[in-house]
Amino acid sequence: MIRRRVSIASDRYEPDAISPAIRVGDLVFASGQAGFDENGVTVSGGFEPQARQAFANLDRVLTEAGSSLADSVKVTIMVTDLEANLETIVKLRGEFFAEPYPAYTLTQISRLAQADWEIEIDATAVVRRRNSRPDRRGGNRDRADASADLPRAASRWPTGQPERSMT
Length: 167
Description:
By secondary structure, the chain is an alpha+beta fold. Helices cover 20% and strands 26% of the residues. The protein has helices spanning 47-64, 82-96; strands spanning 3-6, 21-24, 27-34, 72-79, 103-108, 119-126, 132-134, 140-142. The strands form 2 sheets. The protein has a 6-stranded mixed sheet with strand order 1-2-3-6-4-5, with helices on one face. Strand 2 and strand 3 form a beta hairpin. Helix 1 crosses helix 2 (82-96).
């Protein structure tokens, strides 16, 4: 399969030999996006404005590749203070994603690439197909995809807090 670099306007990654995303067939692998504006300046106001900007930046990259947040199948969110920001992350995931929710990894790290970044998000998404139809959030659902009709398990995180033990 051919790997194709996804280019975007005001590509702040190009000087560092990083692709905003790579498209391989019907998959898009998006690089981590943080809360910076089109000039590469970190947005002010703390965690939530940075997180909203990071989601917007990720959606812009995915859209350029023929996909969107609604088409994400795997998302990784890295934050510098998980305890302080978990509630906000859960709230924003509910705003930006719909069922079937993408597979998801959330981790706390000591520092991101720039010292003032508080969050970075990357994703793997599928490219929209011609025979797909919009779902309730504007994403797409392949007509042949029966998995969306499967019953959903009850949430294991009813209070928004992850379980401490998997046994």
